[in-house]
Amino acid sequence: MDLNLINWLLALSPVLTVLLLMVGLGWGGSRAGVAGFLVALVLSQTTFGGGLDLAAVAIGKSVFLAVDVLYIVWMALFFYNVTNEAGAVALIGRSLPRLTSDRAAQSLLISWVFVSLLQGVGGFGVPVAVVAPLLVGLGYTATQSVIMAALGHGWAVTFGSLGTSFVALTAVTGLAGEALAHDAALILGLAGFFSGGLVAFVSAGWGGFLRSLPMLFVVGSVMGLTQWWIAANGMWTLGSTSGALAGAVVGVVYVLSPFHSAEKNAAANVGSERPQDIALALAAYLILLILAFSANLIGPLEQLVDALIIQVDFPAVATRFGWQVSAESGRGISVFGHAGAILFYAGGIAFLLYRRAGYYESADVWREIWTKVRRSASKSTVSILALVAMAALMTHTGMTQIIARGISQTFSAALYPLVAPFIGALGAFMTGSNTNSNVVFGALQQETATLLGLSVPVLLAGQTAGASLGSVLAPAKVIVGCSTVGLAGQEGPVIRRMLLLGLIPVAFVALFTFARLAGS
Asked: 41, 279, 330, 447: which could form a disulfide with 64 (CB 3.0–4.6 Å)?
């Protein structure tokens, strides 16, 4: 198939359809995703020579890829709602700022550490929606609150939501998580310093930023190194959760230590929460960590929970123009050992604990929790199903390869590493999701790296890191945050101010990716 401008634009048109509908017309990800899928389907059957058999194979594979992601999405929302309905999330949020009266330190504990913990186990706009009102209650303006809550957890998105975005990246590229986790976690860990620095600056200006440098270094190092070690050792579903929990422990110890000004601590108060209540609020997260680590590290247990894996073999297919896809097995789904299953177990145990402790006011809270899960996840489900199917059709008909060839001929191997993270950020900004950006652009970045002779893991790390940081700037997420602090309809000024700040860590990722590839 000849590479020309018309073919290149047609191959790119499904992606452009999604972006233009979301940005130009304000469509949601679910409607735009379905439209992009339909465009890809029509083009695959006409311009790019695919038959019904090819479409069936591509869509069949996409179902397994999407279920692998959606299993986590639904169960992460279940786990979050179990803890939120019990009041555990609000209790933790109230307790942290009472450890110190230093505004910058308060903001870091709430809108850098705590918001990242929420991203680790929930995500999907929940962190900003929960944390922004807490910051308003501490005296920050509504605009400050949304900006701090959003920017503070940008580093934690890829390995947050129990690794949903990272799992999506491995799914669409066909690469093992072990091959990608090291570089992705390394770049994101370093980007975490920028996330925290921006929070301190928005909270208390240059003075607060400079005053917070020791805390930023100590807590940021612990969070970044913990996430890197966990992810690089095959437990990427716990990367952000573990990093944020470690950061919370170290952050609390730091503000209570002599290294933090005694004068600033003097005005702090412990509040009315009983230690046992705080411990019980944290119990759900501890249970999650214990179960997840046990399932990954205890051999016999891992074999037991992975005893039932659903997997289907797909035949080889080819287009009329000779583009071929070999026979292969679809994505395997471990029914009882999947990260989604671990979330369900942890959420179920936490539910029993909180109900026994009398934390639930409603007698029908179980049904109410699942109602909220269904409402929150329904649009994401349609969006992910459609976008994964679109990406699969593009890959199976050679569209992704055509786009990659066009980009590789436009940018040199020396310059493309500076561009790749911004492509990831743009995809996340437009679609509102690191996961969606990885699904739409992951295979494209992989193909481009191969054509340019660049390291695929490093370039994909730049893709997902850029998407992680870009996702918190997305209008869809900003709208959620603004709606909880009385700024509904006033999102424009918030987004404009966030963009000026939020592109700083993306630029760092681009420079770091460039330096890594230049030195390899």
From this structure: 330
